[in-house]
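Section 3.1 - Work completed
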Amino acid sequence: MRFRHPDGTTVHLAYCTNVHPAETLDGVRAQLRDHCEPVRRRLGRDRLGIGLWLAASAARTLTEDPSALRALRAELEHRGLEVVTLNGFPYEGFGSEEVKHRVYRPDWTEPERLAHTTGLARLLAALLPDDVTEGTVSTLPLAWRTPYATDPTAAGTARRALVTLGQRLDTLAELTGKSISIGLEPEPGCTVETTADAIAPLTAIGHDRIGVCVDTCHLATSFEEPGPALDALRTAGVPVTKAQLSVALHAEHPHLPEVRAALAAFAEPRFLHQTRTLTATGPRGTDDLDEALFGGTLPDSTPWRSHFHVPLHAPPAPPLTSTLPVLEAALARLAGGPVPLTRHLEVETYTWQALPAELRPRTRAQLADGIAAELTLARDLLTDLGLKELP
């Protein structure tokens, strides 16, 4: 979906396909047929943006077989789909029964991460629509905090990898005329947990094609205020390459038994749900929701937020809610000012099948309905900010 900002800029809105498990190219093509095209049809649009997730094996197939890449591009066009952004954070196995810490490997101290991200940038340059010259890829925020924090060589290794990546992106732009930018995606528990944490390593690299992907669920979970966070990035000259529109789970009164019981329904074995609270001395947190509920280490006199991407349009029932107001405030700064701070927006609710059983979609049709409803909400927020939806 495309929108015209009042300044004349085109802003792209997509939804991320990491909600649909697929490790192979055949699986990706099935996603386009079974999920993405039905969502487009529900929205009544001739064209729908998707933030494509390509697992390492699927990406290798496309890299090694130019005819397969051409066929994928043709299929996207045939189904009324377009790709201007890729989710390069998960490397493989994102549809596994247990993901947890595995999603952070390989990290930016390992050569596989540089090779994979370089490959994704090259693939995206080939998949961009003919009338689009800029693409974005979101990626791991360097590493999970351990053992990175105790390895004296880790920061230097990651920095060198990103410098090399920047050089490759420059070469790619010269060869193709397509500018691909990479965004580190701050996430609780990682080396770069907040947007503030991103400023030092990115200014040290100093490359205008390497910036931040702002995920509004992560922003909210870390209790970052959108205005000051985005202002600090802008002051530091760190670009917001893309933003992921997502909301976290919010519990206003976590000391109450009924609130803890409601939260327990979201503690599940597949993904990490880092949980944070804001105390007088700053944020405190656990690495997973069950640790917060049963570990006895997280203060419960102030609200809790958990890294659980709940559907944008369907907050959980009381006594819980979502951080949709944080998303709205962030989007107002990202797209509602005199110029947009980013041109790529991506709805990223990948946890539909991790929701409590009574909230999960039971059919493909129900999932498509839910994704279309999320995109409708995002579209309405953008038009309320003065952007005009384009055909």
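Second construct:
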Amino acid sequence: MATRRTTTKPPTTTAPAPVEPAPCQPCGGTGNVAITVRVGRKRRPVGQQDGLCLNCLGSGTDPGPDV
């Protein structure tokens, strides 16, 4: 004789979809920002070059408020 089940199965829950991190605001998600190049004694600007984004340290994702 088969035993009778007295409890119900717990409902199966699906895992939430992974949330993609937001892109970093200063660099726009690229990890690079424009740095002004200055030359001479008067430190006049002559151009720009790529520099590492100090907000996200080159990862391109928003670090969030806890960092």
